[in-house]
């Protein structure tokens, strides 16, 4: 349990001796204004002291390391959770927006071969509080380093598979949207393609964005890169996305990490085109970022451009994303929380049971 794991009813219980407006007052201050308990100067000093020192209202994590690029345009925070697991959160500032990339699990069970988090294995789901507090940190950090500029966008593209942790992720989405006040259209959930999770997401209501990490447009190739494709093959995935698009009237985007000689040929672009057309999907191309456990390189610039030209020529909306944060290991797919690596032996055995647990959950 931590500060942001408390729901309003928990606050009411916790503050039972206080005037009835206290819970709402604190709720608003810690969400809308992203204040820490010791910053709640509108509270009586004695209450503030209790909140600042009690375990139930403590932070979900401590900052272990903060890495920045030279102009503080990209910053990566390594947080240690209360059970010593580590996660990473990346904050990126652009001229027109500030985006935080947050984690939804400690590690990941999806095993995508080219992804550093996948190479590390799965430990556990993050709680609602652990997810929400990453956003609070980013708001606070943006306030410190950028002054007036506000955090504007949230992407669930850090460690973990958000749609394998729907219960906590959905509640966190609601809190980020309703209580912190970030518009649903500024929040993106990225999934490897968990079909039951996409169905639940479809029925959520608010206009959150959905990104799907495709990376290959035929089953053989996709299964070799993204093993969960064996369980939710492209045909099933596309049917589910079609339903999403029809029900929500939202455009989805496909993420495509371009790997030299693996998924960057003319043939790959044509296969991808035929999946995009019926969905009117947008495509985000990003040259693969290097990770320790995967030999392929990112595609060269001219390959990326000609791939993008083929898509654009077929009327597909395509963007080329920059590799923000590669120099501080903070780019897409590079989050691994390496501080935990001292305990490799212990981590592997633990991994096996945790993975069985999550595979049961996906059935
Ligand atoms: N599990 C979710 C979100 C986390 S990964 C998902 O798969 O969508 C966020 C994005 O980074 C995904 O599109 C993922 O495929 C991509 N990615 C993973 N490893 C990468 C790498 N080495 N280089 C570039 N992108 C990578």
Q: Secondary-structure blueprint of this entry?
A:
Elements (H helix, E strand, L loop, with lengths): L7 H7 L7 H10 L13 H9 L7 E8 L5 E8 L4 E8 L4 E4 L3 E3 L8 H5 L1 E4 L2 H19 L6 E4 L9 H15 L6 E5 L3 H8 L6 E5 L5 H7 L8 H15 L4 E6 L7 H14 L2 E6 L13 H13 L4 E3 L23 H19 L1
Parallel strand pairs: 4-7, 7-8, 8-9, 9-10, 10-11, 11-12
Antiparallel strand pairs: 1-2, 2-3, 3-4, 5-6
Helix pairs in contact: 5-6, 7-9, 10-11
S-adenosyl-L-homocysteine (SAH) binds next to strand 8 and strand 10.
Strand order of the largest sheet: 1-2-3-4-7-8-9-10-11-12
**Approximate shape:** globular
- Indicate the CATH class of the largest domain: Alpha Beta
Q: Which ligands appear in the coordinates?
A: S-adenosyl-L-homocysteine
Number of distinct beta strands: 12
Mean pLDDT reading? 91
Oligomer: single chain
Helical content, roughly? 25-40%
Tell me the name of the CATH homologous superfamily of the largest domain: Aldolase class I
Characteristic terms for this protein:
alpha/beta; ten-stranded mixed sheet; binds S-adenosyl-L-homocysteine; disordered C terminus; two-stranded antiparallel sheet; TIM Barrel; DNA polymerase, domain 1
